[in-house]
Amino acid sequence: MNIGIVCYPTFGGSGVVATELGKELALKGHRVHFITYSQPARLDFFNENLFYHEVIVPSYPLFQYDPYELALASKMVDIVQFEKLDVLHVHYAIPHASAAFMAKQILKTKGIQIPVITTLHGTDITLVGKDPSFEPVVTFSINQSDGVTAVSADLRTETYNHFRIEKDIEVIPNFINLERFQRQRKEHFKTAISPFGEKLLVHTSNFRSVKRVQDVIKIFYKVRQQIPSKLLMVGDGPDRIKAEKLCRKLDVCSDVRFLGKLEAVEEVLSVADLFLMPSEKESFGLAALEAMACQVPVISSNAGGIPELNIHGVTGFSSPVGDVADMVKNALFILDDANLPQFKANALARAKDFETSKIVPLYEQFYQKIKDAQMVTV
Ligand code: GMT
């Protein structure tokens, strides 16, 4: 198939999933065209089936805000026509689904029918999309998509609860490449960070307020009182400064390292004993899946779709959002040497349920289903 993928090209979860999906589809022989405003962060290898089309928004003194959505829609029209795309798959509803709707209408006037598939990822529904500034457009563009997927059953329910949706939403969860995300031998790194065999806790995120990074520090502070341990904070974002301030206040800076936006996160996860995800909202929790693939159990909140991934008492534990005391109690249980090996093995076993080879075919089947349905209605 000839597939157009529209996404945010940054390190955010939706962009990662879209890019990894495109790469996998290209390896399977599909021709994949990425349409976005800069090279996707993980589009980092050559494949004859991968193409990248940059959306350029010309600036003009009259524009207070650059009209990205219009430039994106125009680019989609151009690429669908010229590259003879079979399907347009947009990731994250805002503004990709509405731009795709506009492109579809323009193409219709040229006698071209292009099926549009929208994948909902999380905050496009649970946070930003609900805002009255966007809600009518989000509702409309989801209903106008030919196919809609959500990354967890919880996100599908949230979508039906908060928007007047007439479409079926298919759940296709996030997936993981177990060749890349696997526990590697990195003893030198472990010794450098934990010279006396301290337990290693890890958090990775974009440090937005929904990630509750201060809870991460609070959990670590309490765990460290009971078990010698270190904390690695991977990523960056608006709440990093608050987390750093809390470390100073609690006097734990010597045992906490902020590593910034690391690309090779699997190397850090390879030496970790526990992953912390106390998020307020989390539609799926791709970062937790990456940790589990590297045999790292998860202490998380029970927000959104996390419990669909992190099986309570098996691969880790989920607690109510903000219940730091419960998360500490569970963390101490997992970190007990009598329990840790089993949790590590369970985490990997669960991650295998989401491996690329199981999930990517679901997208291929979905594309075909939507294409076939459109042929019938034309
Ligand atoms: O908040 C983020 O981490 C980024 C956000 C995005 O859409 O870019 O991630 C969401 O999509 C990921 C991929 O589907 C999910 O694994 C994350 O759980 C989800 N984040 C939230 O719901 C907060």
TrEMBL record:
Gene Ontology process terms (BP): bacillithiol biosynthetic process
Segments forming domain Glycosyltransferase subfamily 4-like N-terminal: 11-180
SUPFAM superfamilies: UDP-Glycosyltransferase/glycogen phosphorylase
Span of domain Glycosyl transferase family: 186-341
InterPro entries: Glyco_trans_1, Glyco_trans_4-like_N, Glycosyltransferase_grp1, Thiol_BshA
Superkingdom assignment: Bacteria
Recorded GO MF terms: glycosyltransferase activity
PANTHER family in the cross-refs: SULFOQUINOVOSYL TRANSFERASE SQD2
Designated name of the protein: N-acetyl-alpha-D-glucosaminyl L-malate synthase BshA
Native source organism of the sequence: Adhaeribacter rhizoryzae
